[in-house]
Fold:
Amino acid sequence: MGQAGKGLMNVMVKRRVHVAAAAIVSSDGDKALIARRPSNVDHGGLWEFPGGKLAPYETGLEGLKRELHEELGVEIKRAQPLIRIHHEYSDKHILLDVWQVHEFSGEPFGREGQAVRWVPLQELVNYPFPAANLPILQAVMLPTEYFITAEEADDAVFETRLARALVEDNVRLVQLRAKSLDEAAYLARAERALALCREHGARLLLNADPALLEQVDADGIHLTSERLMSLERRPISEAKWLAASTHDQKQLTQASRIGCDFVTLSPLRTTPSHPEVPPMGWHDFQQLVERAAMPVFALGGMTRFDANHARAVGAQGIASIRDFWK
Ligand SMILES: Nc1nc2c([nH]c(=O)n2[C@@H]2O[C@H](COP(=O)(O)OP(=O)(O)OP(=O)(O)O)[C@@H](O)[C@H]2O)c(=O)[nH]1
Ligand SMILES: [Mg+2]
Structure:
């Protein structure tokens, strides 16, 4: 059989496994519960988010409830979809259907003898996980809402509005987007925005040339789709966050190729800022998100009322200027 034929056989015989897994987050939101896989199983010795294979008749959440009872002795009280990851292992195609568990009863322990540990979210990257898991680590660190700042000439108005969003809307992730400012003005505003974000425990990404991180120690860079497409590789260190604006499959593929930690995908709806761009709508959005192995924020006419629907179709949440700019 020729190479092409063999490849086809491999695809045809690969098992498809649907796995439900839990990102159980502590009530203060600072830690996640992970478990160590026994040495004698698939991916033995690696750490994992507890869970397991679904029975054919089970929904993700049903299967997860059963698995968490079996493996940890806990009952899920409140959970929300976090991310779905399709991953090709050499022997199988796996769909990891990950839920964020916000509330549970019982004291978790390794009922199958496995080690179980609460780990601060920032330290998760130090644990060896199966290859499919990277997007889970990114998703669990991210909030459901991504605030993009509006164009604003007046520094005082800018600061009042940013502070309001941080305090009243509890925004924890901010993108400083200010295309109308020159570089010096942008830098000054970035320093001020960073101080406000730090004060309120929020992260700040600069929508700017990645080199600007050498001057302002923000948490990362948000690439415009144009910058994204012009890059050969990740322009900043792994210690910082890299995000990008995307609008289609090609840009999503590029974002994943250069190692973006998350993206926005737009426009869901028509917006006053881009009236000429046709909206993609939820159906196309969902299809693109399903194939993206990284957290995706829905953008374009989104408000916080859309966040639950965005999560239900596989997104991390919503990104918005207007809903937070008051
Ligand atoms: N539970 C879990 N499985 C994961 C993760 N990441 C990942 O690649 N997997 C893979 O997904 C599959 C899950 O199988 P599992 O061994 O947990 O299944 P299970 O609990 O039903 O066990 P069983 O088949 O022994 O009854 C394994 O191939 C595992 O390596 C993860 O974070 N959590
Ligand atoms: Mg399991």
User: Anything to note?
Assistant: The longest strand covers residues 75-88. Residues 1-6 have pLDDT under 50 and may be disordered. The domain at 3-131 is CATH 3.90.79.10 (Nucleoside Triphosphate Pyrophosphohydrolase). The pocket of 8-OXO-guanosine-5'-triphosphate (ligand 1) is lined by residues 17, 19, 21, 41-43, 48-49, 51-53, 67, 94, 96, 130, 132-133 (CB under 6 Å).
